[in-house]
Amino acid sequence: MATQVLPDTETRPETTESTGSDEPKMFHYVKKAKIAESAVLGNMVEALCGERFPVTKSPKPGSPVCPDCKKIYESLPGDGS
Question: Which H or E run includes 14?
Answer without folding.
Answer: strand 11-15
